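Quick start: what a row looks like.
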Amino acid sequence: MCAVAAVPWVIAAITAASAVYSADQQKKQGQYAADVAEENSKLDKQQAANAAALGDYQADQARIRGNLARGQQLAAFAANNVDSTTGSAADILGDTAIFTAEDERQARTNAALRSYGFQVQALSDQGQAAYSKWAGNSAATGTLIQGAGSTVGAFYGAGGSLGGGGAKPGNTLLTGGSYNGTAGTQSYSTRWAGYGNGWKQ
C-alpha cells in the first residue's frame, strides 16, 4: 500500500524536477546568447575605432603624396627656369593642392562610413543581447508555470490519494474533468457489537 501511495508523489516529483531543469537550461541558453552578442558588440566598437584610425592614416598618406608631388613639380619648374607663381605652372600646383585635399577628404569620409556601420552593428548586437536574455528568462518562466500545472495534473491524474476519490485518472480537473466526490471509494459501516466482539462490518 505504501508503494502504491508513493506513486503519485514520485510522478509529481519527476515532473517538477524536469520542469526546473528545463527552465534552468533555457535561462542558461538565453544568457549564453546574450553574452555572445555582448562580445560581438565590443568587437564592433573596436572595429569602428580601427576604421576611424585607418581613415586618419589614409588621409595623412594622401597629404604626404600630394606634398611630394608638389615638391617634384617645383623642382622641375626650377630646373627649367619656369616661374611657378604664374601661368600654367601655377595652375598645375593649384590642381595638385586641390586633388590632395580631395584625397584627404575622401579617405576620412570612407573611414567615417565604415566606422558608422560598425557602430550601428554594435547597437544591434546590444539589442540582440538584451532580447536573448529576456527570451531565456521568459521561456524559463513559462516552463516553470507549465511544469507546475503538469505536476498537479500528474498527481491528481495518478489518483491523488489512497482512496482513489476525486478526479479520475486521465481526466483531471486541469484537463476538463469533474469532481465526483467519493465515487469509487468503498463505504464501510461499523457498529459496536458488544464487549469482546470488537468492531464488526
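That is the whole record. The mean pLDDT is 75. Residues 2-79 form the longest helix (78 residues).
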